[in-house]
Here is the input.
Amino acid sequence: MSGGNAISLDKVSVRFGALEALNGVSLDIPRGKTTVLIGPSGCGKSTLLKVIIRLVEPDAGAVMIDDAVFDDHAALLMRRRMGYVIQDGGLFPHLTARGNITLMASYLGVVESDQSERLATLVKLTDFPPDGLDRFPAELSGGQRQRVSLMRALMLDPEILLMDEPLGALDPMIRFDMQNELKEIFRTLSKTVVLVTHDMAEAVHFGDALVLMNQGRIEQTGPADELLRNPKTDFVSRFIQSQRREFSGIGQVR
Here is the structure.
């Protein structure tokens, strides 16, 4: 399936007690593109990502995957179509890299020969050292652990990849290298990617479209240069001004 929207949110709201984490959010996420959620801390971007994968239940509104409503009845099937990567990798310390990557495939009964073939493809794709597969997470570098987390998310060849600050815990030089590697992986796989980051340079680097959020609402969506040249609200203008260095590569902020 090509073109159109992979994910649609219709007037989604989420409350945590008195906190309104999302307030009537509507958003279309195009298939095969990288959409980056940005905004200040506490704006709702990570909550939005968790709503998409149904780790957080919306209090109102609907989430649709390929125009099918994603509700409790469809949760298991829909989640198998998504890969999820979090900041610290979320690896199980008692499992080797191989065990972490193949955990869900083994649970679902994927035959070992197919697992091995898929694993070999992912090792090559992520430039992971094959001898690292039998090491435990504590024996791997930060960059290697993040590659393992990415391979685990891609093991079942999901249509959608959700990433919450995937590079946030890495040292700057490792982060820079992985940004370039990830962008090439996204290009190669043509997956629908939704990525959360607080790093504007990273957002501009990855994003086909940016979604700028504030206080549980979407302020503006579009390519980075559109937000730069045509901010729709005062908040967008002030946010861009505060990030002028990161936008310097796509234009001159006055």
